[in-house]
Amino acid sequence: MRLLLIEDDDRLAGPITEGLARYGFTVDRARTGADGLAGADEDPHLVLLDLGLPDMDGLDVCRRLRARSSIPIIMITARGEEADRIVGLELGADDYVAKPFGVRELVARIRAVTRRTAGHLVPADAPAPAGTSGAGPQRLGSLEIDRRTREVRLDGGDVALSPREFDLLAYLAQDPGAVHSRQQIMDTVWDPHFFGPTKTLDAHVAALRRKLGDPAWITTARGVGFRLTVPAGQPDDGSPPAAAS
Description:
Elements: E1 2-6, H1 10-22, E2 26-30, H2 33-39, E3 46-50, H3 58-68, E4 73-78, H4 82-91, E5 95-99, H5 103-116, E6 138-140, E7 143-146, E8 151-154, E9 157-159, H6 163-173, E10 180-181, H7 182-190, H8 199-212, E11 218-221, E12 225-228
Parallel strand pairs: 1-2, 1-3, 3-4, 4-5
Antiparallel strand pairs: 6-7, 7-8, 8-9, 10-12, 11-12
Helix pairs in contact: 2-3, 3-4, 6-7, 6-8
């Protein structure tokens, strides 16, 4: 995901950019409101907007961005700017984070906002996830995932999944073969503010493995997290497995 950070303070912008990069985000930076408005024309997926800019009021930047786009906006504010936060939200900002803040809090807010505004996040010309064709179901070997209807089929037969099991499978399938950390999965599939036992993730992984009929579909990266892989013997292009000779 590509973010636009509108922030003039190098002491804040540097750590934010480096921290978000560790979570897989690409960050473009603008140092002024004018540059930020120009940068928004490049269609970032989300804007991080500091309200204290050198050339113009950050609230004015927020107003102009919202007048021409539905792009998600998270304001960066000082703790004493309660009135500005209220005005910013009324102008159309989606959330705010108050200084000082940690990168994990910011990442959690980004993920929460992107879930709420998911319909605005993917540009029309963005590539589909691996194994998909346009808006149709994603196919990985004999597995078919239809996000539009929330249906899963394996070897042509329906697989009955709970809503959370489907969300977990669809999330892992966004980047087949990539390792997703336990924290990333919990933040995205559950909620950044989920305080239940993390063993609930293990229980859902076990259920998915059982319903998919082969534990090799979801492999464990010990000490890190999980990845979705096509088991050996199956093509990874969505075509049926070759018949044994």
